[in-house]
Amino acid sequence: MEEKTLTKSIKVEEEQLAVSMGSGGLAVLATPAVVALMENAAFELCEEILNNDELTTVGTAISIEHTSPTPLGAEISATAVLKENDGRFFNFEVSASDAKGIIAKGTHTRVSVKAEKFQKKADEKFNG
Question: DSSP letters along the chain, please?
Fold first, then answer.
């Protein structure tokens, strides 16, 4: 399988700090913000691969180690590398870095679903 990669970059803003997100008490990049950027890179890569208006992917698993703090205003990049595509399942290695190096790494799994059917199921979850 040809390895496919996508990288997303952002500047750390106030709303992405741990103290703002409620995931910690310091003014450093929050782990949930790192996870969101990693997931976004994987999601966008899946959208390119699927290239189908009826299908999308949902995240089903993520496991990361967030090993280095990043302050407000710093630029960070998250990269998703597709390691395996087994039917509906997309397995990624994900990493994030700032100007000083790797700040987080791990794995992420997404599953393709029929977008309209999945959304309808979610919307009707508590209707009966």
Answer: ---EEEEEEEE--GGGBHHHHTS-SSSBB-HHHHHHHHHHHHHHHHHHHH--TTEEEEEEEEEEEE-S--BTT-EEEEEEEEEEEETTEEEEEEEEEETTEEEEEEEEEEEEEEHHHHHHHHHTTT--
Q: How far apart, in whole angstroms, are the C-alpha atoms of residue 62 and residue 66?
A: 12
Name the residue with tokens 């003014």.
27
Distant-in-sequence, close-in-space partners of 69: CB < 8 Å, separation ≥ 6 = 26, 28, 29, 103
Distances (CA, A) of 20 to 12, 26, 39, 40: 12, 9, 20, 20
Q: Per the structure block, which two tokens stand in for 63?
A: 């496991």
Average pLDDT score, the chain: 96
pTM of the model: 0.95
The strand pairing partners of 101, in sequence order, are 98
Rounded distance, CA 79 to CA 36, Å?
12
